[in-house]
Amino acid sequence: MKKKITIVLALVLAVLFSTGLSWATDDVVNFGICEIRSGAFKTNGDRTIWGIKAAVKEANENGGLLGKEINLIIEDNQMKGNIAVQKVKKLVMKDDCVVVIQGSSSGVGGAIGQAMPRLKRIYLDTNAEAMGITGENFNPYVFRTCLNAGMHVKALANYFAHETDLRKVFFVNQDYSWGYDVAEYYENAIKEMAPDTEVVGKEFHPVFNKDFASYVNKIISSGADYVISGNWGTDMTQLVVQSRKLGMDLPIGATFLDDDGVMSIAKEAAKGCIQANMYILGVDTERAREFENTFHKYSDGKWPSFVIMEAYIGTKMFIEAVRKAGSFDTEEIIKAFEGMTWEGPVGTITMRKEDHQAQTPAVIAKYAEKNKYYDHPYLTPVKIIPAEDISLTLEESGWEPWKK
Fold first, then answer.
1. What is the spatial distance between Cα 283 and Cα 59, in angstroms, rounded to a whole number?
2. Are 106 and 128 in contact, with CB atoms under 8 Å apart?
3. How far is residue 355's CA from residue 275's CA, in Å, rounded to a whole number?
4. How confident is the model at residue 404, as a pLDDT?
5. Which backbone phi and psi does 175 adopt, to 5 degrees?
6. What is the pTM of this model?
7. Top-tier CATH class for 150-277+362-390
8. 40/233 Cα distance (integer angstroms)
Protein backbone atom coordinates (compact mmCIF):
# COMPACT_ATOMS: atom_id res chain seq x y z
CA MET A 1 0.00 0.00 0.00
CA LYS A 2 2.82 2.35 0.98
CA LYS A 3 4.57 1.61 -2.32
CA LYS A 4 1.39 2.46 -4.29
CA ILE A 5 1.02 5.78 -2.48
CA THR A 6 4.65 6.64 -3.29
CA ILE A 7 4.11 5.85 -6.99
CA VAL A 8 0.91 7.92 -7.16
CA LEU A 9 2.60 10.87 -5.44
CA ALA A 10 5.50 10.71 -7.89
CA LEU A 11 3.08 10.73 -10.83
CA VAL A 12 1.17 13.72 -9.42
CA LEU A 13 4.37 15.69 -8.93
CA ALA A 14 5.51 14.82 -12.49
CA VAL A 15 2.24 16.17 -13.90
CA LEU A 16 2.48 19.37 -11.87
CA PHE A 17 6.01 20.08 -13.05
CA SER A 18 5.14 19.25 -16.67
CA THR A 19 2.31 21.79 -16.66
CA GLY A 20 4.74 24.49 -15.58
CA LEU A 21 2.70 25.70 -12.60
CA SER A 22 4.65 28.56 -11.08
CA TRP A 23 4.09 27.46 -7.49
CA ALA A 24 5.76 24.14 -8.28
CA THR A 25 9.10 25.97 -8.58
CA ASP A 26 8.94 28.84 -6.11
CA ASP A 27 12.51 29.96 -6.76
CA VAL A 28 12.22 30.31 -10.57
CA VAL A 29 10.17 32.45 -12.96
CA ASN A 30 10.00 31.53 -16.65
CA PHE A 31 10.49 33.92 -19.57
CA GLY A 32 9.56 32.51 -22.98
CA ILE A 33 11.41 33.27 -26.22
CA CYS A 34 9.70 32.50 -29.54
CA GLU A 35 12.36 33.19 -32.18
CA ILE A 36 13.81 32.04 -35.49
CA ARG A 37 16.04 29.07 -34.70
CA SER A 38 16.35 27.61 -38.20
CA GLY A 39 16.52 28.67 -41.84
CA ALA A 40 18.04 31.64 -43.68
CA PHE A 41 17.28 34.22 -40.99
CA LYS A 42 18.47 32.16 -38.00
CA THR A 43 21.29 34.64 -37.36
CA ASN A 44 18.67 37.27 -36.51
CA GLY A 45 17.09 34.93 -34.01
CA ASP A 46 20.51 34.17 -32.56
CA ARG A 47 21.22 37.84 -31.99
CA THR A 48 17.86 38.54 -30.39
CA ILE A 49 18.50 35.68 -27.98
CA TRP A 50 22.00 36.99 -27.20
CA GLY A 51 20.49 40.28 -26.09
CA ILE A 52 17.80 38.66 -23.95
CA LYS A 53 20.31 36.31 -22.33
CA ALA A 54 22.62 39.18 -21.41
CA ALA A 55 19.80 41.09 -19.69
CA VAL A 56 18.67 37.98 -17.83
CA LYS A 57 22.20 37.09 -16.76
CA GLU A 58 22.69 40.63 -15.48
CA ALA A 59 19.46 40.44 -13.48
CA ASN A 60 20.19 36.98 -12.06
CA GLU A 61 23.71 37.93 -10.99
CA ASN A 62 22.30 40.96 -9.18
CA GLY A 63 19.65 39.23 -7.06
CA GLY A 64 17.18 37.94 -9.62
CA LEU A 65 13.64 39.24 -10.04
CA LEU A 66 11.34 39.59 -7.02
CA GLY A 67 13.33 36.90 -5.25
CA LYS A 68 13.31 34.47 -8.18
CA GLU A 69 15.88 33.38 -10.73
CA ILE A 70 14.81 34.06 -14.31
CA ASN A 71 14.77 30.93 -16.47
CA LEU A 72 14.60 31.13 -20.27
CA ILE A 73 12.57 28.67 -22.36
CA ILE A 74 13.29 28.98 -26.09
CA GLU A 75 11.11 27.82 -28.99
CA ASP A 76 11.69 27.92 -32.77
CA ASN A 77 8.92 29.72 -34.67
CA GLN A 78 10.55 28.88 -38.05
CA MET A 79 9.61 32.44 -39.12
CA LYS A 80 6.00 31.28 -39.58
CA GLY A 81 3.11 32.97 -37.81
CA ASN A 82 0.97 29.85 -37.35
CA ILE A 83 3.86 27.88 -35.86
CA ALA A 84 4.75 30.84 -33.64
CA VAL A 85 1.23 30.89 -32.18
CA GLN A 86 1.42 27.15 -31.43
CA LYS A 87 4.76 27.64 -29.67
CA VAL A 88 3.46 30.63 -27.72
CA LYS A 89 0.51 28.59 -26.46
CA LYS A 90 2.96 25.99 -25.21
CA LEU A 91 5.14 28.62 -23.54
CA VAL A 92 2.15 30.07 -21.69
CA MET A 93 -0.07 27.08 -20.99
CA LYS A 94 2.58 24.44 -20.31
CA ASP A 95 5.63 26.41 -19.23
CA ASP A 96 3.71 29.19 -17.42
CA CYS A 97 5.96 31.93 -18.86
CA VAL A 98 5.09 35.38 -17.53
CA VAL A 99 6.17 36.95 -20.82
CA VAL A 100 6.83 35.87 -24.41
CA ILE A 101 9.64 37.74 -26.16
CA GLN A 102 10.09 37.94 -29.94
CA GLY A 103 11.47 40.37 -32.47
CA SER A 104 12.63 38.83 -35.75
CA SER A 105 9.88 39.43 -38.35
CA SER A 106 6.87 41.68 -38.02
CA GLY A 107 4.71 39.07 -39.72
CA VAL A 108 5.44 36.64 -36.91
CA GLY A 109 5.15 39.39 -34.29
CA GLY A 110 1.72 40.39 -35.54
CA ALA A 111 0.46 36.82 -35.22
CA ILE A 112 1.84 36.49 -31.69
CA GLY A 113 0.33 39.80 -30.64
CA GLN A 114 -3.13 38.80 -31.76
CA ALA A 115 -2.98 35.57 -29.74
CA MET A 116 -2.16 37.22 -26.41
CA PRO A 117 -5.61 38.52 -25.32
CA ARG A 118 -6.82 34.90 -25.18
CA LEU A 119 -3.73 33.76 -23.28
CA LYS A 120 -3.68 36.77 -20.91
CA ARG A 121 0.10 37.14 -20.99
CA ILE A 122 2.41 39.88 -22.23
CA TYR A 123 4.11 39.77 -25.62
CA LEU A 124 7.30 41.83 -25.47
CA ASP A 125 8.18 42.99 -28.98
CA THR A 126 11.84 43.94 -28.94
CA ASN A 127 12.53 44.51 -32.63
CA ALA A 128 9.54 43.82 -34.91
CA GLU A 129 8.57 47.26 -36.23
CA ALA A 130 5.51 47.02 -38.53
CA MET A 131 3.02 49.73 -37.61
CA GLY A 132 0.00 47.47 -37.11
CA ILE A 133 1.45 45.70 -34.07
CA THR A 134 0.87 48.70 -31.81
CA GLY A 135 -1.35 50.54 -34.29
CA GLU A 136 -4.54 49.22 -35.83
CA ASN A 137 -4.07 45.81 -34.18
CA PHE A 138 -3.24 47.16 -30.73
CA ASN A 139 -4.19 45.19 -27.65
CA PRO A 140 -3.11 45.80 -24.05
CA TYR A 141 -1.00 42.61 -23.83
CA VAL A 142 1.54 43.88 -26.38
CA PHE A 143 4.45 46.19 -25.52
CA ARG A 144 6.97 47.35 -28.13
CA THR A 145 10.29 48.61 -26.76
CA CYS A 146 11.98 49.40 -30.10
CA LEU A 147 11.21 51.99 -32.75
CA ASN A 148 8.25 51.39 -35.01
CA ALA A 149 8.61 51.71 -38.78
CA GLY A 150 7.34 55.29 -38.86
CA MET A 151 9.73 56.53 -36.20
CA HIS A 152 12.65 54.60 -37.66
CA VAL A 153 12.34 56.04 -41.16
CA LYS A 154 11.46 59.49 -39.84
CA ALA A 155 14.97 59.52 -38.35
CA LEU A 156 16.40 58.72 -41.80
CA ALA A 157 14.22 61.41 -43.39
CA ASN A 158 15.52 63.91 -40.86
CA TYR A 159 19.06 63.16 -42.00
CA PHE A 160 18.46 63.21 -45.77
CA ALA A 161 16.27 66.34 -45.57
CA HIS A 162 18.56 68.41 -43.35
CA GLU A 163 22.07 67.03 -43.89
CA THR A 164 22.08 66.43 -47.67
CA ASP A 165 20.81 68.00 -50.88
CA LEU A 166 19.72 64.63 -52.31
CA ARG A 167 16.12 64.85 -53.51
CA LYS A 168 15.41 61.81 -55.70
CA VAL A 169 14.63 58.66 -53.73
CA PHE A 170 14.03 55.07 -54.78
CA PHE A 171 12.48 52.49 -52.42
CA VAL A 172 13.52 48.81 -52.35
CA ASN A 173 11.81 46.76 -49.66
CA GLN A 174 10.65 43.29 -48.69
CA ASP A 175 7.16 42.39 -49.83
CA TYR A 176 5.27 42.26 -46.53
CA SER A 177 3.83 44.65 -43.95
CA TRP A 178 7.17 45.97 -42.72
CA GLY A 179 8.44 46.82 -46.21
CA TYR A 180 5.25 48.66 -47.14
CA ASP A 181 5.36 50.63 -43.89
CA VAL A 182 8.94 51.72 -44.61
CA ALA A 183 7.99 53.11 -48.03
CA GLU A 184 4.76 54.77 -46.91
CA TYR A 185 6.06 56.40 -43.75
CA TYR A 186 9.34 57.55 -45.27
CA GLU A 187 7.47 59.21 -48.13
CA ASN A 188 5.17 60.96 -45.64
CA ALA A 189 8.09 62.18 -43.54
CA ILE A 190 10.37 63.32 -46.36
CA LYS A 191 7.58 65.21 -48.15
CA GLU A 192 6.97 67.13 -44.92
CA MET A 193 10.66 67.88 -44.22
CA ALA A 194 11.84 68.33 -47.83
CA PRO A 195 8.77 68.96 -50.04
CA ASP A 196 10.85 69.09 -53.21
CA THR A 197 11.79 65.40 -52.84
CA GLU A 198 10.70 63.19 -55.75
CA VAL A 199 9.94 59.47 -55.38
CA VAL A 200 11.34 58.00 -58.61
CA GLY A 201 10.56 54.34 -57.93
CA LYS A 202 9.18 51.72 -55.54
CA GLU A 203 9.94 48.02 -55.64
CA PHE A 204 8.89 45.22 -53.28
CA HIS A 205 10.67 41.89 -53.53
CA PRO A 206 10.13 38.45 -51.99
CA VAL A 207 11.70 37.80 -48.61
CA PHE A 208 14.99 35.87 -48.96
CA ASN A 209 15.53 37.24 -52.45
CA LYS A 210 18.70 35.98 -54.11
CA ASP A 211 18.95 38.12 -57.25
CA PHE A 212 18.67 41.92 -57.04
CA ALA A 213 19.88 42.64 -60.57
CA SER A 214 16.48 43.70 -61.95
CA TYR A 215 15.87 46.03 -59.01
CA VAL A 216 19.33 47.58 -59.24
CA ASN A 217 18.91 48.18 -62.97
CA LYS A 218 15.63 50.02 -62.29
CA ILE A 219 17.33 52.18 -59.66
CA ILE A 220 20.14 53.12 -62.04
CA SER A 221 17.78 53.99 -64.89
CA SER A 222 15.41 55.97 -62.63
CA GLY A 223 17.87 58.79 -62.01
CA ALA A 224 17.64 58.32 -58.24
CA ASP A 225 20.32 59.91 -56.10
CA TYR A 226 19.70 57.72 -53.04
CA VAL A 227 17.88 54.56 -51.95
CA ILE A 228 15.81 53.78 -48.87
CA SER A 229 15.54 50.15 -47.75
CA GLY A 230 14.20 48.46 -44.64
CA ASN A 231 15.73 45.14 -45.68
CA TRP A 232 17.23 43.03 -42.92
CA GLY A 233 19.34 39.90 -42.65
CA THR A 234 20.45 38.27 -45.89
CA ASP A 235 18.20 40.59 -47.93
CA MET A 236 20.17 43.59 -46.67
CA THR A 237 23.49 41.90 -47.38
CA GLN A 238 22.56 40.92 -50.92
CA LEU A 239 21.13 44.33 -51.78
CA VAL A 240 24.30 46.12 -50.71
CA VAL A 241 26.82 43.68 -52.19
CA GLN A 242 25.04 43.03 -55.49
CA SER A 243 24.21 46.70 -56.11
CA ARG A 244 27.90 47.66 -55.85
CA LYS A 245 28.97 44.84 -58.14
CA LEU A 246 26.42 46.03 -60.69
CA GLY A 247 27.74 49.58 -60.64
CA MET A 248 25.26 51.34 -58.36
CA ASP A 249 27.18 53.50 -55.89
CA LEU A 250 24.29 55.57 -54.49
CA PRO A 251 23.88 56.03 -50.74
CA ILE A 252 21.50 53.50 -49.21
CA GLY A 253 19.53 54.74 -46.23
CA ALA A 254 19.05 51.64 -44.11
CA THR A 255 17.29 50.59 -40.93
CA PHE A 256 19.21 47.37 -40.25
CA LEU A 257 22.68 47.82 -41.68
CA ASP A 258 23.96 47.90 -38.08
CA ASP A 259 23.81 44.09 -38.12
CA ASP A 260 27.37 42.94 -37.45
CA GLY A 261 26.57 39.80 -39.47
CA VAL A 262 25.60 41.89 -42.50
CA MET A 263 28.61 44.17 -42.21
CA SER A 264 31.03 41.26 -41.86
CA ILE A 265 30.03 40.27 -45.40
CA ALA A 266 29.21 43.63 -46.98
CA LYS A 267 32.40 45.30 -45.69
CA GLU A 268 33.59 48.03 -48.11
CA ALA A 269 30.46 47.63 -50.24
CA ALA A 270 28.56 49.52 -47.52
CA LYS A 271 30.66 52.64 -48.06
CA GLY A 272 28.40 55.68 -48.42
CA CYS A 273 25.44 54.05 -46.67
CA ILE A 274 23.47 55.71 -43.85
CA GLN A 275 21.94 53.87 -40.90
CA ALA A 276 19.41 54.81 -38.20
CA ASN A 277 18.43 52.95 -35.04
CA MET A 278 17.56 53.56 -31.38
CA TYR A 279 21.24 52.99 -30.56
CA ILE A 280 24.38 52.45 -32.62
CA LEU A 281 27.77 51.50 -31.21
CA GLY A 282 30.27 54.27 -30.60
CA VAL A 283 28.22 57.14 -29.16
CA ASP A 284 30.82 59.19 -27.29
CA THR A 285 29.18 59.76 -23.91
CA GLU A 286 29.75 58.28 -20.47
CA ARG A 287 26.24 56.81 -20.40
CA ALA A 288 26.71 55.12 -23.79
CA ARG A 289 30.09 53.69 -22.83
CA GLU A 290 28.62 52.33 -19.59
CA PHE A 291 25.81 50.71 -21.61
CA GLU A 292 28.24 49.04 -24.02
CA ASN A 293 30.65 47.87 -21.34
CA THR A 294 27.90 46.46 -19.11
CA PHE A 295 26.49 44.49 -22.02
CA HIS A 296 29.97 43.30 -22.99
CA LYS A 297 30.46 41.98 -19.44
CA TYR A 298 27.20 40.02 -19.26
CA SER A 299 27.24 38.73 -22.85
CA ASP A 300 30.61 36.98 -22.70
CA GLY A 301 32.37 39.52 -24.88
CA LYS A 302 29.73 40.52 -27.43
CA TRP A 303 28.73 44.09 -28.33
CA PRO A 304 25.17 45.54 -28.28
CA SER A 305 24.61 46.06 -32.00
CA PHE A 306 21.53 45.61 -34.20
CA VAL A 307 18.73 43.49 -32.65
CA ILE A 308 21.11 42.35 -29.90
CA MET A 309 20.89 45.84 -28.47
CA GLU A 310 17.12 46.08 -28.94
CA ALA A 311 16.48 42.74 -27.23
CA TYR A 312 18.74 43.70 -24.33
CA ILE A 313 17.01 47.06 -23.83
CA GLY A 314 13.53 45.56 -24.16
CA THR A 315 14.18 42.77 -21.69
CA LYS A 316 15.69 45.20 -19.17
CA MET A 317 12.63 47.43 -19.51
CA PHE A 318 10.28 44.50 -18.89
CA ILE A 319 12.28 43.46 -15.83
CA GLU A 320 12.03 47.02 -14.54
CA ALA A 321 8.24 46.98 -15.10
CA VAL A 322 7.93 43.78 -13.06
CA ARG A 323 9.97 45.32 -10.25
CA LYS A 324 7.80 48.41 -10.37
CA ALA A 325 4.67 46.25 -10.22
CA GLY A 326 6.09 44.14 -7.41
CA SER A 327 4.23 41.22 -8.92
CA PHE A 328 4.24 38.68 -11.75
CA ASP A 329 0.52 39.23 -12.30
CA THR A 330 -0.10 40.25 -15.90
CA GLU A 331 -2.57 43.03 -15.16
CA GLU A 332 -0.30 44.53 -12.51
CA ILE A 333 2.68 44.48 -14.90
CA ILE A 334 0.59 46.20 -17.59
CA LYS A 335 -0.33 49.01 -15.20
CA ALA A 336 3.30 49.43 -14.13
CA PHE A 337 4.66 49.36 -17.70
CA GLU A 338 2.23 51.95 -19.06
CA GLY A 339 3.84 55.38 -18.88
CA MET A 340 7.06 54.00 -17.41
CA THR A 341 10.33 55.78 -18.20
CA TRP A 342 13.73 54.10 -18.50
CA GLU A 343 17.08 55.76 -18.99
CA GLY A 344 18.51 54.40 -22.23
CA PRO A 345 22.04 54.83 -23.61
CA VAL A 346 21.21 58.09 -25.45
CA GLY A 347 18.25 59.41 -23.47
CA THR A 348 14.98 58.66 -21.77
CA ILE A 349 12.71 56.01 -23.27
CA THR A 350 9.03 56.37 -22.38
CA MET A 351 6.43 53.63 -22.78
CA ARG A 352 3.44 55.52 -24.16
CA LYS A 353 0.36 54.54 -22.19
CA GLU A 354 -2.19 54.53 -24.99
CA ASP A 355 -0.52 52.30 -27.57
CA HIS A 356 2.37 50.70 -25.64
CA GLN A 357 4.84 52.09 -28.17
CA ALA A 358 8.24 53.14 -26.80
CA GLN A 359 9.11 56.76 -27.45
CA THR A 360 12.88 56.78 -27.88
CA PRO A 361 15.67 58.88 -29.37
CA ALA A 362 17.46 57.61 -32.48
CA VAL A 363 21.05 57.63 -33.68
CA ILE A 364 22.24 58.27 -37.25
CA ALA A 365 25.50 56.63 -38.34
CA LYS A 366 27.74 56.46 -41.42
CA TYR A 367 30.04 53.78 -42.79
CA ALA A 368 33.38 53.55 -40.99
CA GLU A 369 36.33 51.57 -42.31
CA LYS A 370 37.81 50.99 -38.85
CA ASN A 371 36.27 50.64 -35.40
CA LYS A 372 37.11 49.20 -31.99
CA TYR A 373 34.34 46.59 -32.01
CA TYR A 374 34.93 44.36 -35.04
CA ASP A 375 37.71 43.31 -37.40
CA HIS A 376 35.62 44.44 -40.37
CA PRO A 377 34.17 47.85 -41.35
CA TYR A 378 31.15 48.97 -39.36
CA LEU A 379 29.48 52.32 -38.60
CA THR A 380 30.19 55.50 -36.67
CA PRO A 381 27.49 57.70 -35.09
CA VAL A 382 27.11 61.22 -36.48
CA LYS A 383 23.86 62.52 -34.99
CA ILE A 384 21.40 61.86 -32.16
CA ILE A 385 17.78 62.77 -32.87
CA PRO A 386 15.53 63.42 -29.83
CA ALA A 387 12.47 61.26 -29.33
CA GLU A 388 10.09 64.18 -29.84
CA ASP A 389 11.52 64.80 -33.32
CA ILE A 390 10.66 61.31 -34.58
CA SER A 391 7.54 60.57 -32.55
CA LEU A 392 4.28 59.95 -34.37
CA THR A 393 0.89 60.86 -32.96
CA LEU A 394 -1.58 58.07 -32.23
CA GLU A 395 -3.52 59.13 -35.32
CA GLU A 396 -0.41 59.08 -37.52
CA SER A 397 0.42 55.61 -36.15
CA GLY A 398 -2.96 54.26 -37.22
CA TRP A 399 -3.78 53.38 -33.61
CA GLU A 400 -7.17 51.88 -32.84
CA PRO A 401 -8.37 51.44 -29.24
CA TRP A 402 -8.69 47.84 -28.16
CA LYS A 403 -12.14 46.32 -28.15
CA LYS A 404 -12.70 43.02 -26.35
1. 25
2. yes
3. 26
4. 78
5. -85, 70
6. 0.92
7. alpha beta
8. 8
